[in-house]
Amino acid sequence: MPSVTLSTSKPTTASADVLILGIRGDEDKGDLAETLDLLGFSGEKGQSVRFPSGGLVKAPVVVALALPDEPTAEDLRRAAARGIRAAKNATTVAIALHPAGVDEVEAIAEGIDLGAYRFDTYKTRSAAKDAAPVEIASAVILTPFARQTTATKAVERASTVALAVNTARDWVNTPPGDKRPADLVEAITTHVTAAAGTAVKVSVWDEKRLAKERCGGILGVGQGSDSPPRLVTLSYEPENAVAHLALVGKGITFDSGGLSIKPGASMQTMKLDMAGAAAVVAATVAIATLGLPVRITAYACLAENMPSGRATRPGDVLHMRSGATVEVHNTDAEGRLVLADGLALAAEAQPDHIVDVATLTGACIVALGSHTSGILGNDDDFSETVLAASAAAGESMWRLPITEEMKGIVTSSTVADLRQHNPKPYGGALFAAAFLREFVGDVPWAHLDIAGPSFNEGSAVDYTPVGGTGTGVRTLVRLATELAGSR
What we know:
Elements: E1 3-7, E2 18-23, H1 26-29, H2 33-38, E3 48-52, E4 61-66, H3 73-86, E5 92-96, H4 102-115, E6 138-142, H5 149-173, H6 181-196, E7 200-205, H7 207-212, H8 216-222, E8 230-236, E9 243-255, H9 264-267, H10 275-290, E10 294-305, E11 317-319, E12 325-327, H11 335-348, E13 353-358, H12 362-368, E14 373-377, H13 380-393, E15 397-399, H14 404-410, E16 418-419, H15 428-437, E17 445-449, E18 455-456, E19 467-468, H16 473-483
Parallel strand pairs: 1-6, 2-4, 2-5, 5-6, 9-10, 9-13, 12-16, 13-17, 14-15
Antiparallel strand pairs: 3-4, 7-8, 8-10, 11-12, 14-17, 18-19
Helix pairs in contact: 3-4, 4-5, 5-10, 6-10, 8-11, 10-16, 11-15, 13-16, 14-15
């Protein structure tokens, strides 16, 4: 990520390869007005132009970005990322987006770090014409708040959160053959040790321990693979904790669908199916790095869903950690099975709140599209708190209900306590949440279905890259911040 600093310099005198300039109206154009008019810059939302400055400002190149008259923090976060992506071949940039306060400075810093993200680990460049693109090394935010300690801390906070998001993106983007359950455990352990030191403790249950602990959901999903499942538990316990938040993440490192196998084309992006586990792990490390006084217990439920002679069959009954039995109807609805064991363990810890994050249902994409996550839960007040945190963090989420009819369907198995899959072709996201609700007891709980926004198959837009997006991380960190009373 670029080094981000603050300065009180004026846009016209800032030293950088590129000046990223926010334009709210004619007054912001200054001496560039004639050039902008000639380029057809109308100020329409999302518009940007890049041009040589011609000596009108110190930076040789200007990227002008249209801004609303009173931009929100999210407007500035997106604009900063858009400007960074437009600053091609620059190593230094100066960013003048006119933040109205420290919160806006933080949003700009986040946008810089998120917009600069790229995943090129597997790219090879043996010929000169394929040389690596120039990366931005440093970015300076121009603001009158530059000398305020609160602004400096805001930039540091933004860096911590952006690093967490980008880490989750890296894990999601890693090819599935290189992040089978044991591989992902190693990546998680390495990251926690490097980023949080001893502040976060890690424990890992292998398949033998999972069997001893009666985690039949995780074992059932993972038993078709020759790479056994794992459960990773992270614990952050600050002495001054004012709340206990449990996080549970779906970590299917590759989802073939099992014996209910997916069509070949549908498997192409199924490396994304561990995005929920990536989000809860990365967020936990960020919360610890920020030193928030909130106890976090996070569970990453890792398995590879593969077909084989050992795989769970439709019609099998699994014995879950909670003591409930579950009849399996569709092995491609595996995420709720691994989450069920994670949620049961979370509830046993008696936290104040539980949040699970999962790429759970295509039905949620049908309901909310590819850019909005669903929030479902058992407590209206807590669900509203999570929704507010997502809005403040700049992540699009929307509440969906768990309707009463779903309770009857979940408990309608003739051979077990619960059925795993909805027999009807509609309401799939609601049914899945109703199933998960059976494992959380009375603890206030929210389920985030991130199936849509967790992975971007289209073009990069603002701070959303192609591939893994890191969805959920910012919301979880913001939620912990709110629970800590830090804002």
